[in-house]
C-alpha cells in the first residue's frame, strides 16, 4: 500500500488546580485559540514522556502524568488549506511541579491561562479542538486509568548502533 493512512499521534494534559484548569492560548491560522497543553509524539518518546515534555515546553511547568484519561480520535479539516487530518490523542491527568519562569514558551504559545470548567464551556468557539471539552468532561466524570495501559516497548527508546 503506497499511501497508507496514518493518524497524527498527539498527547494532552488535563491539569487542575483549585478548581481551575491550565490551558494555553496559542496562535493558529484561525486566530488565537485555547487548548490543553498538548503536542505531537516525537520519535523515540513514550506518550507519557511526550506529555511531560509538551507541558514543560508550552507552560514552563514540570508535569508528571499519573493517569490516562482516555484515547481520542478526531478528524479535522484545516480552514485555509482544506487538509484532512486525523488525530489520535492520548490525554493524561497528573501532578504539576515546579514552574520555571525563566523558560520561553514554545513557538506560537502566547500565554498560559487558568480557567474554570464553566469558563471553558462558555467559549467553544475559542477552542482549538473539540477534544478540549471531551477530555475535560471525561476528567470531571472521574475517568482515570493506570498509565501502564499505554505500553511503550524498549525498541522505541533504544538508540541503534
Automatic annotation (TrEMBL):
Assembly and binders: Monomer.
Species of origin: Acidovorax soli
Record EC number: 3.6.1.-
Matches recorded under Gene3D superfamilies: Nucleoside Triphosphate Pyrophosphohydrolase (3.90.79.10)
UniProt key word Cytoplasm: no
Family statement drawn from the similarity comment of this UniProt entry: Belongs to the Nudix hydrolase family. NudJ subfamily.
Protein name (Swiss-Prot/TrEMBL): Phosphatase NudJ
Record InterPro entries: NUDIX_hydrolase-like_dom_sf (IPR015797), NUDIX_hydrolase_dom (IPR000086), NudJ (IPR033713)
MF terms in GO: nucleoside diphosphate phosphatase activity; ribonucleoside triphosphate phosphatase activity; thiamine diphosphate phosphatase activity
Keyword annotations of the record: Hydrolase, Magnesium
Superkingdom of source: Bacteria
Gene: nudJ
Cofactors required: Mg(2+)
Domain Nudix hydrolase span(s) in chain numbering: 4-137
Record CDD domains: NUDIX_Hydrolase (cd03675)
Amino acid at each position: 500500500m503506497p499511501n497508507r493512512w496514518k493518524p497524527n499521534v498527539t498527547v494532552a494534559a488535563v491539569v487542575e488546580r483549585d478548581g481551575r484548569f491550565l490551558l494555553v492560548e496559542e496562535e493558529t491560522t484561525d486566530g488565537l485559540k485555547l487548548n490543553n497543553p498538548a503536542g505531537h509524539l516525537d520519535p523515540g518518546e513514550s506518550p507519557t514522556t511526550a506529555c511531560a515534555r509538551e507541558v514543560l515546553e508550552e507552560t514552563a511547568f514540570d508535569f508528571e502524568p499519573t493517569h490516562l484519561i482516555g484515547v481520542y480520535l478526531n478528524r479535522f479539516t484545516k480552514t485555509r488549506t482544506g487538509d484532512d487530518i486525523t488525530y489520535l490523542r492520548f490525554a493524561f491527568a497528573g501532578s504539576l511541579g515546579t514552574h520555571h519562569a525563566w523558560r520561553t514558551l514554545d513557538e506560537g504559545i502566547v500565554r498560559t491561562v487558568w480557567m474554570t470548567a464553566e469558563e471553558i464551556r462558555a467559549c467553544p468557539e475559542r477552542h482549538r479542538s473539540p477534544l478540549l471539552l471531551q477530555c475535560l468532561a471525561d476528567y470531571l466524570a472521574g475517568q482515570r486509568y493506570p498509565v501502564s495501559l499505554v505500553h511503550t516497548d524498549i525498541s522505541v527508546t533504544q538508540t541503534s548502533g
